[in-house]
Each structure stands twice: as structure tokens, then as C-alpha cells.
Amino acid sequence: xxxxxxxxxxxxxxxxxxxxxxxxxxxxxxxxxxxxxxxxxxxxxxxxxxxxxxxxxxxxxxxxxxxxxxxxxxxxxxxxxxxxxxxxxxxxxxxxxxxxxxxxxxxxxxxxxxxxxxxxxxxxxxxxxxxxxxxxxxxxxxxxxxxxxxxxxxxxxxxxxxxxxxxxxxxxxxxxxxxxxxxxxxxxxxxxxxxxxxxxxxxxxxxxxxxxxxxxxxxxxxxxxxxxxxxxxxxxxxxxxxxxxxxxxxxxxxxxxxxxxxxxxxxxxxxxxxxxxxxxxxxxxxxxxxxxxxxxxxxxxxxxxxxxxxxxxxxxxxxxxxxxxxxxxxxxxxxxxxxxxxxxxxxxxxxxxxxxxxxxxxxxxxxxxxxxxxxxxxxxxxxxxxxxxxxxxxxxxxxxxxxxxxxxxxxxxxxxxxxxxxxxxxxxxxxxxxxxxxxxxxxxxxxxxxxxxxxxxxxxxxxxxxxxxxxxxxxxxxxxxxxxxxxxxxxxxxxxxxxxxxxxxxxxxxxxxxxxxxxxxxxxx
Length: 525
Hints:
- By secondary structure, the protein is mainly β.
- It has one domain (25-522): Neuraminidase (6 Propeller), CATH 2.120.10.
- The chain contains one helix and 36 strands.
- The strands form ten sheets. It has a five-stranded mixed β-sheet with strand order 7-6-5-4-31, with no helix packed on it. A four-stranded antiparallel β-sheet has the order 3-36-33-32, with no helix packed on it.
- The longest helix is centred in the first third of the chain and has 9 residues, at 55-63.
- It is globular, with a radius of gyration of 21 Å.
């Protein structure tokens, strides 16, 4: 694969030694105690809570004494907030313990050329009711945003547990957004709809479940597809065999199919995607649908395996293939089941898939650094035959590997012309270690690389954040301490990539807090 004027192929990499340290209180045997979210502490193992990444599971583990909640950081540096790129999560905060806003999904409307953009994210706010949802919209193409208050997804489906999803359905001319909610079976997938992205109405329960986790959302906006307008939601069902990878689909958003089980056991749902709007179909009359997943081994610092599931018949039947060999995980410490990028970013290496024209499928993810004990790098793989076979992984970040320059948590988008934009968190400027949030080695940027030829080659890196970002704290006692968002999902439309990330430039009470930043990045010409 040709990259930026030179040939560079990386076969699977030597596995560096990884130091595993506890970043939080180690798990202790649960006792019979009912939590405020209705989970008995004696049920932690049977419900698979240690593997779940949603906010309800996190709060139960905090209250059962298994994991720590956020807490004030001693010696935090007092700095004035820096100007943001575009601050999407812009409600004011009363203090750092009520200002955890991260884990974001962005989408732009196809009906007005991307003038309306919606960002859905986790925003823990206990006033007036305890909920984990935040939603913002822009009507000027992402130049400015308004956070909707009160949060539109805080009621009508019971308590909101976060895990944000959002799409715009071109056929129905409707926005669909949602989260995990209590009224859809205890912990199921609840949806809301909107005609304009500003005002929302409670919709269907896409799935009634008691243990749904980490759902993802995609809509087929290809007019020539036989399944034009069909929406797909994938998730891990911890009520089914400890986390079965499952999917439902709907053509109207009101009635949803029975769950289709892609894998009967636990394999992590990463993201559902498919043929983008305006691209040629590759097989059959329907857009191809893909679900990226990850085999995490036993969690923590175990090796990982990327797996891609594929459907040619609108989500009814599925096949799967592995994306190369198992690879070493990015893992500087652990937080219960999860790996951690120090000091507070729990991250298992999940990335984001995307589909370009002519059956080219893209996937970006994070793993252990290629050399010199580098904690983490960003890797890219590509299929040119609609997901049947995959290329050798290539490292996208071009900085020199060392023990300080961590890269992690990538996202990816691709448009109908084959313009690809991958972006990630990046500490390439670090010259010292990152142990706690006051260390300068913890500061980071949002960095990316783009391709104008459907992933055949990549251009030089671009910096997406306008300046180096201060590492944010997590002082919210209702959210696990090792949290700054589990993922960020980007999309592309009309020659632009719509990118969001967790940003720590804003300070509240002298403490840098988590916010959702947005940037509209032009695709390469």
C-alpha cells in the first residue's frame, strides 16, 4: 500500500511488554445490596456488569464498591479556558462534579446540504432528574451549536443511561436519536424523532431489554437501494448468553424486527455501517450492511481480534470474517475489566468502519505501538472486495514511536467519492510520562489523515484541534473514574467530515472538565 510517496507495509507487530497497574479500587466480592439503579450487587457476575460500558452499569459498580467514582483532583492546575474549535456541549456547569460531557455521535442532514447537524452525547446531569443524555444542534452547518435544555431524551422513556446514537433518515425526512433507557425493558434502546433536529418527540423502543449495552446506529440513505430508508441498530445483549451480538432493523422507525443474533456469545459491538449515499451497489439490489466487532479475549491487556459481519439481504442473514491476526492491545493500566490509556481513558482499541464506492470497506482501530514500547498507535485496514479479504494493517500516525507518544480511540468517515478521513487522540508532542492529569505528558491533540483515492494512499497528517488540549478530569461521583468517553463517531457529507471528540480546554472552578468539541473538516480535493 502506497502511503504519502513511499511504500510502507507493517506485518503484525512484535508484542511489547505492557505494565498492568490498577487505576482504581480492585474488584471485591459483591454483597446483597440494592443500588439506586435497581441492580442488586449480588447480580454483578450474572448480569455481566464488568463487561458493560454503559452508565447504568458504571453507577451500579460504583455503589457496590467495585469501582471508584470520580473525585476531586488534588493539585489541579488553575487555567483560564481556551477558545474551543466549536463547543457543541455548551450548557453551563455549576461545578466540575456536574460537567462530564463526552462520548459523542454526529450526523448531518442530507435534505438541506448539511446545514443542520445534530450531536448526541453523554452528559451526566442530576438536575432536575438524574440522567446521562445531552443533545445539541446546529442550523448553520456546524458554525455554532445550541445544547437543548432540558435534554430532550431525559424523559418519556424513563431514566436515561446514555450510550448516544443519532441518524438522519433521508427517505422519511426525519431525525432519529436515542440512548439506553429504563422504560424499554429496564435497560433497552429507546428512540426519539425530530423533523428539524431542535424539537424531539418520544418514539419507539427499538429493543426491550434488561441488559442492552453499547448500541450503534446506521441508516441506508442510498436511494437506489432495495432497502432505502432501512435503519439498523446493533448492540450487546447481556440478557442473552452474557452479551450476544444482536441487531434489529426497521423501515419506518415505529416497528422493529425481532433481534437477529450475529454471534450467540459475547463479542463486542463496535459499529454498524453500510454503503454510503450515492455510491454504486456492489452485490445484489440492497446496500451491503456491515457490523464491526472485537473479540477482547478476557479483557484488560489481552490480545484482540477484529471481526467484520456482513449482510446482503437487509440485515436478515449474516456472514463474518476476521481482519488479520490477533494483535497486542493498547493498555497502560486497567480499570476493572477494561484497559486504560493513562490517566482516565478506558479504551479497548475500538475504532470505526466505513464503506466507500466500488465495494471498498475501511476500518481504523488502535493497538499497542509498533516499536520502542510505544503505548498505542492507530492502524488501518482495507477491503477491496466488499469485505471478503482484508489488507495488512498499516500504521496511520507517522510520528516516531516512544514511551510517551500515545495515539488512541480513532474514528473514520468516507463519502460517496471515496474521500476518507480518520482522526484520533494524539500525544505526539509529549516529552514526559502521563501518570495523572496534572502531568504535561497527558496533554493531547485531535489529529487525522485523509485519503482522496478510497484508501489506496493517505496524505500527510492534519491537526484538527486548534491547539494542544489540557487533559480533563473526571470528578463526577456518579460516573466511573476511568471515563472520558468510550468512543466518538464521525460522518461525512458534501465534501466534509463531521468530527467530534472529548476536549478538556474548558475549566470550571479551576478544574479542566470534559466537553464535546466539533469540527467540520473539508475532504481532500
